[in-house]
Amino acid sequence: MPRPGANRPAASPNATTLRQQVYDQLRRAIEQGSLRAGTRLPPSREHAASLGVSRNTVLWAVQRLQAEGYVEARVGDGTYVSQAAGAPPTQGLVAPPRGLSRRGQLIAETAARWRPPHVAARAFRIGAPEVATFPFAVWDRLSRQATAHQRAQRAQYLDPAGDPHLRQSVAQWLWASRGIRCDAAQVVVCSGSQQGIDLIARLLLDVGDEVLVEDPGYPGIRASLLGHGALARPVEMDADGMRIDDAATRWPAACMAVVTPTHQFPTGVGMNLARRQALLQWARAHDAWVVEDDYDGEFQYGGAAQRVPALCSLPGSERVLYVGTFSKTLHPGLRLGFVVVPPALVEAFAMARAITDRHAPGDAQAVLARFIAEGHLLRHLRHMRELYLARQQVLISALADASNGAVQLLPSDRGMHLLHEVAPDSDDETLSRNALAAGVMLAPLSRYAMQSPRRGWLLGYAGFDEAEIRAAARVVGALARRR
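Given the sequence above, the corresponding structure tokens read:
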């Protein structure tokens, strides 16, 4: 590998930094096959000496490659090129197109690792809610009841933070449903949770900042962080959630943690009270932020008295930003979500929203505000909780029968999918590919891991009727019997 800066003109204020050059050349060597999967990188001191740069320069480049999945650290054994990075280009790790800015390249690179699905949902796709029985008639009636004057008002440029009636309805709903006390002025309406995460990353993180993320965890979160130049630091999960004490020791410079504490994605565990309090204490001690992604927190099946409140509802949660979405509670086509932020940050978030896409559609916001205020959301969720629990039970029974007992799913009191876990480092990709070829979506757990060896399959049940679930179970069951 040539020394960074060799045969180049003298550096200028706009020239690529040395650490960026080291990163670019290492990444190019991996993508072009000069550094193959499983190759051990030189120790950082030796590597820095051979390149004529500082050790910190090499460490920065290697840490970023690790955050992006190109290399993996093995405790006590050094850093190696990951197997995923050594895969053929068809696996997704390809160079971004020429002509992009540095930020554009970051975004293009993350797109190679996370491609949100845009085809029609079929069993067992995760995250797909029931849409066929959505009360469209109620929604349409509320829309038609708007006066000509109200329609004209909503056709104007609106407050980027959101319709005031919707913000008020969301604040009241959060108190009643999730135990969160917040003022309506703290609610910033956005286009789903993904935009909420993007706003947080843009406003609260600088390039090179370290962020604790769950491993395994949601790749859309990592994609947003990496697209803004942040470093996603994987934190192991156990039966109680993110191991924040270990994370604080391993990643002492982290300034943010992104968590799914009510129903961890994708493992399904809930963060217990002691771990939640430790996370809040970490945020206070490090002047760090905690982002609570409550993507499906409304789907808890044990009755109101048994439902776990949001992390944001606990004492000492002043450093928590709460991200909510209506994509799961209603439907993803609505494209509405929200972020609850500290009062001092509201104006900045509103302006960031304005810069991105000005504001959400006025008609949809106004109808949703009435939909919540008049109790339709509560009635819809009650129906969905009953329906989803019944579908979960059908899935468990159907798959056990179809696999002759080879696949025994454990029931869950929350969420929209189940996890069937197998031995660490097992091959969970082959079964998923075979299922897809047979028309069934079966996500492998490894797809959501950074360094975690955990393996298995995720099975979404919420958006599919009994016949669809049973038909897909027969496909998966037959494949499982042949493993």
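The domain at 379-481 is CATH 3.90.1150.10 (Aspartate Aminotransferase, domain 1). Try to locate this feature in the token string yourself.
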